[in-house]
Amino acid sequence: MKRLIVGITGASAGIYGVRLLQILTQHEDIEVHLTISASGARALSEELQIEVDLANFELTSLIGVSSPRVVYHHESDIAAPIASGSFRTEGMIVVPCSMGSIAAIAAGMSRNLIQRAADVCIKEKRKLVLVPRETPLSPIHLENMLKLSQIGVCVLPAMPGFYHFPKNVDDLLNFVVTKILDQFGIDTKLIQRWKE
After folding, report:
1. For domain 2-182, is the CATH number 3.40.50.1950?
2. Residues 152-188: tens digit of each pLDDT
3. pTM to 2 decimals?
4. Strand (E) or helix (H) holding 93
5. Which of 65, 94, 123, 189 has its CB 3.0 to 4.6 Å from that of 7, i.e. a possible disulfide?
């Protein structure tokens, strides 16, 4: 069974994280280790009217269904398995990824479990995919993303394409989620690929 870490931070567009989790729970061969920052929970509340209790988390409050293959870790739990390099995973996705989280990860800071798990992925040379949703980008944002890209981190902005002729918001979400999961070799069949 593949293990993936998913982090949701306080950037706008938590809907991408929600959609990613909905898709991952459909794959019986994937175990998800989920952590959400306090600002991520607040953004989910303000943008999607999804109330997430980080102290007493229930997956159904986030995606409407439960799954035994989703393991939740509180952002302050530094003893969580995903805080250690000896806990093997395929890697991590932070979606959405705030610019504050990108800055902390680029600086090697580990102020919460999301940042620590990302740091572990970097040091263990595991796949790390950061999905920023910010515009415009300042020189500081660009420098931090460049620094991470140069050490092998995949910076995958939440920028949907339009060559698959999207008909609705779900089509746009599915495009970005497909791009994310392509990084791990997980085929979703959510979109019509170019020339296929």
Report:
1. yes
2. 999 999 999 998 889 999 999 999 999 999 999 998 8
3. 0.96
4. strand 91-97
5. 94
